Amino acid sequence: MKSDFATARPNRVPEVTLDFWLIKLMAVTMGETAADYLAVNLGLGLTVTSLLMTRVLVIALVLQFAQRRYVPWAYWLAVVLISIVGTLVTDNLVDTFRVPLTVTTAVFTVALAVTFLVWYRVEGTLSIHDVTSFRREAFYWLAILFTFALGTAAGDLVAEEFGLGYLATGILFGMIIASLAIGYFFLGLDAILGFWLAYIFTRPLGASFGDLLSQPGDYGGLGFGTIITSALFLAAIAGIVVFMTLRTTRQPA
């Protein structure tokens, strides 16, 4: 009989560490600015950009699902691309189909809740420490797509429709994340609930600061532009992924 160690399947997604949150925050920031760059600065438009990036995302997910354990470059490539596509999904609904931000926020909230419900009913857990099968990973990535779309809608709703602006919105969501951290470390907040809430709120946090850096001064930004902002965060992401890869290869199997 094989031992549990021999038959145990490795987790396909990373552990939650400080560098996980750093790269995740940069990925969502880049997702916001890269989507704007492709659709606006390059003049591709929302529809063409959405079709193009969805195809690239599908290729990235195929590469990710082909892995049998967590591989940093494959995983974070998928995260960056799903961040861009999640942003484009919301932007298309709002700008192309004129769906109000209040409606998109509510719809994606329900979609995410249904995803979690079905995931839990089928698998009996929402833990990210046990994503060891194709089906669990499919639920995982679907949930992440909805967190990005929801975070985009919620961030735009607060920053634009409620008129708080990019900086105030970023500070607001940063305070929410800080309260979740306090709840987890000191007040007994459930780890799974805390993780997914933080995952949702880091999206509007990153998007708000991405817009703050890239948008011109007339729109409340600092005017660095989408090219410089995207390039800076892409370089930072690449550096952290290299560090993660080196650290992973040094760990025993």
Textual characterization of the structure:
It is a single chain. This protein is an all-alpha fold. It has one domain (11-238). It is 78% helix and 0% strand. The protein contains nine helices and no strands. It has helices spanning 4-7, 18-41, 45-66, 72-96, 101-123, 134-161, 165-186, 191-214, 225-250. The longest helix has 28 residues, at 134-161. The chain is globular. The two termini are 21 Å apart. Mean pLDDT is 87; it is low at 1-7.
Short description:
By secondary structure, the protein is mainly alpha-helical. The protein is built from nine helices and no strands.
Keywords:
about 250 residues, mainly alpha, 9 helices, globular
SSE blueprint and pairings:
Elements: H1 4-7, H2 18-41, H3 45-66, H4 72-96, H5 101-123, H6 134-161, H7 165-186, H8 191-214, H9 225-250
Helix pairs in contact: 2-3, 2-4, 2-8, 2-9, 3-4, 4-6, 5-6, 6-7, 6-8, 7-8
Number of structural domains:
1
> Structural class of the secondary elements?
mainly alpha
The counted number of beta strands is: 0
Distance between the termini: 21 Å
Q: Count of DSSP helices?
A: 9
Q: Major β-sheet, in short?
A: none
Instruction: Work out the helicity level.
Output: over 70%
Provide the residue-averaged pLDDT: 87
